[in-house]
Amino acid sequence: MQKEEKKNKNQIIDYDGMERFFFVENMDESDWKFGGVAISSDEILKPFTKSINIIILSAIIVIVITILISIFIGDSIAKPIKETVELANRIEKLDLTSNVDEKMLKKKDEIGEMSVSFQSIIDSLRDFSKMVGGNPLN
User: Fold this and answer.
1) pLDDT one-digit tens code per residue, 115-133
2) Alpha helices in the chain (DSSP H)
3) Where are the domains of the chain?
4) Number of Cβ within a 10 Å radius of residue 107
5) pTM
6) Number of C-alpha atoms within 13 angstroms, CB side, residue 46?
């Protein structure tokens, strides 16, 4: 084996141009060096390369799943808010012809509380319109 270029202590470029790791064992009793095993760099690094590829693939999968969950959660938050804004816009235009959707009234969160308040406003405005003009807006 020829050592053309040494990259680190054990890595050599062999006579055939292949990078190899060369391992030698010291014999303490005689101060000799024993053996010499040259193993292809690709062969030694193969498990590490496979592990790195698995880690990268896993990271990509986790990122995609996280993005999908974020979109789902964001949509589940934004949709009721948009519906509540539309309801407020109808009330602003004094459109008292429809009631708040039952599923919105049954929600136990802040959107449900706003929906109940909007339904109360609609009912109050209907009663007021009956008292003032005798002709309800609905």
Assistant:
1) 999 999 999 988 888 888 7
2) 41-92, 102-105, 110-133
3) 11-43, 48-132
4) 15
5) 0.54
6) 5
